[in-house]
């Protein structure tokens, strides 16, 4: 009987995943079973602080698919929680780590494909400015792509609520429940025509600096 991690890895050889990802998974299957097991023995845990993990292919790694699935879970919860709104709004920022910009764009695309308006910074911004931006635009939530103090191999995904703070009870556990229901990229809306993504930058910087200095 095949070990569970190998079964999980072989599922990533399907057409749901891009060619580069499939190639890397095939390499690990053929050449590095230890790394393969580390990458696939479990799903990267979405905890009260969001996601945090080593970047790479696999269910236990930070990559475009785990970020997309986490975002779909967050979006599903927000749609249920704010169903009285015509348009849910979120803000997204990111740090200078490898792949942070890509993960932020994927996060924006998934939210937009779910019918959200997304405010996405044009370049990296600090976490306090994201918190401000959520309140500035009257957003219902936001995401910061960062792994804080962790080593360079890591990245992370922190979810925020409409008050500009990281999600707390009961939203944190409810979001976790929704994220756990997303087990395949097929469940994720990764793109749509005419996404409602607004690029933000200097104007928000000026408003932020003005408000924190008065």
UniProtKB/TrEMBL annotation:
Gene3D superfamilies: Alpha-D-Glucose-1,6-Bisphosphate, subunit A, domain 3. GO terms for biological process: carbohydrate metabolic process; purine ribonucleoside salvage. Residues 45-184 form the Alpha-D-phosphohexomutase alpha/beta/alpha domain. InterPro entries: A-D-PHexomutase_a/b/a-I, A-D-PHexomutase_a/b/a-I/II/III, A-D-PHexomutase_CS. It holds the Pfam family PGM_PMM_I. GO terms for molecular function: magnesium ion binding; phosphopentomutase activity. Keywords: Isomerase, Magnesium, Metal-binding. The keyword Magnesium applies. It comes from the Bacteria. Belongs to the phosphohexose mutase family. PANTHER family: PHOSPHOGLUCOMUTASE 2B-RELATED, PHOSPHOMANNOMUTASE 45A. This is Phospho-sugar mutase. The lineage of its organism: Bacteria, Pseudomonadati, Bacteroidota, Bacteroidia, Bacteroidales.
